Every structure is written in C-alpha cells, then in structure tokens.
C-alpha cells in the first residue's frame, strides 16, 4: 500500500489503493476498531467505510462525518431570528402568505439557532405561550412545533393599524435578551 505525504509528480493519485479498501473491509468484518475508517487523497477524494449502516435492508445511520450532529453543530453558524407578523387590517390580503413564509423560516432553523415569533398591531403584541418569556427559544423540535402552532393561530385584528415602533421595540427585547444571556455566562 502506498500512502504519500505529497502528490507524486510521476504517479497522480486519483483513487485510494485497492489494498487500502480491502483493509477497510477486513477491519470492519473482523470487528477491529475503529468502527468506521476514512482516507482522503491529496487531490481531495474521500473514502469512508462503511459509508452507511443497514438494518433490515434499510439505511439507518450514515458514518459520513459531515452528516453527524456534532459536525453540523460545529460547522453551522448560529443564527438568532425574530419574526414579526403584522396583524393589522391592511394585511388582510397578505396575512396567509406572511404566515406561510414564517413557517418556512421556522422549519428551516437548525438546532443551534434561536428564534422568536410574534404578531403585532398598534394595540397589541401576540406571543406564543412559552417558558422563555422575552428570551429567544432554541430551535428544538418541540419549540418549533409551538411556534408553528402559534403562527397558525395568529388572526388579523379588525380596525387595527400597523405600529412598526411596537414591533421593533419587541424584537429588540428578544435580541437584547440573547446579549444579556451571553454576557452573564
């Protein structure tokens, strides 16, 4: 087996040597550690064995490190999101679309993101029931469910007007709470 520390000029390595792949298979079948093995050529071709684990002919887990939760969490930028939905009378033709877009954003959040959703007019702020009060919620599945339910329950408020000032003040409270939490840790 030939493993180079740099690409040989006379023999460009495009694929892992067959001996290496046979070693991967043998190690796996014999139950030798590690549970999965990887090799990357200097040209960027990566080999992972086994690439998938099977159970009753169905894939149930990938050993591809870029798909594992610890890698995704480490490689993903953490985002703080505040969604303010205008519930004033003027939103009547647009409210359905605004709510669907808010759901799309909630569904697209990752576990390490934090999010808040509220409806607003010049008279009120409508927030979901939450133990987080004025703090952003971690985008965990149960919290995302609560937010989606809240979005669907938001209704236009007859004779209400838009107050961006109220919305921006509330959004600022959510975002400041994240700064307060970071500074106290």
From TrEMBL:
<dbReference type="GO" id="GO:0005891">
    <property type="term" value="C:voltage-gated calcium channel complex"/>
</dbReference>
<dbReference type="InterPro" id="IPR051173">
    <property type="entry name" value="Ca_channel_alpha-2/delta"/>
</dbReference>
<dbReference type="InterPro" id="IPR036465">
    <property type="entry name" value="vWFA_dom_sf"/>
</dbReference>
<dbReference type="GO" id="GO:0005245">
    <property type="term" value="F:voltage-gated calcium channel activity"/>
</dbReference>
<protein>
    <recommendedName>
        <fullName>VWFA domain-containing protein</fullName>
    </recommendedName>
</protein>
């Amino acid at each position: 087996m030939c493993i180079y520390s740099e690409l040989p000029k006379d023999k460009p390595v495009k694929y892992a040597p067959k001996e290496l792949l046979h070693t991967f298979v043998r190690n796996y079948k014999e139950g030798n550690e590690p549970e999965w093995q990887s090799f990357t050529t200097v040209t960027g071709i990566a080999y992972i064995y086994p690439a998938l684990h099977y159970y009753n002919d169905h894939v149930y887990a990938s050993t591809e490190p870029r798909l594992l939760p610890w890698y995704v969490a480490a490689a993903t930028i953490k985002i703080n999101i505040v969604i303010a939905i205008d519930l004033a009378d003027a939103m009547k033709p647009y409210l359905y679309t605004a709510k669907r877009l808010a759901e799309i954003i909630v569904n697209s959040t990752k576990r390490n993101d934090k999010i808040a959703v509220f409806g607003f007019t010049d008279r009120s702020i409508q927030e979901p029931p939450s133990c987080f009060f004025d703090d952003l919620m971690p985008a965990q599945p149960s919290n995302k469910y609560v937010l989606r339910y809240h979005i669907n329950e938001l209704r236009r408020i007859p004779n209400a007007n838009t107050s961006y000032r109220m919305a921006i003040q509330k959004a600022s409270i959510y975002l400041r709470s994240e700064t307060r939490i970071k500074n106290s840790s």
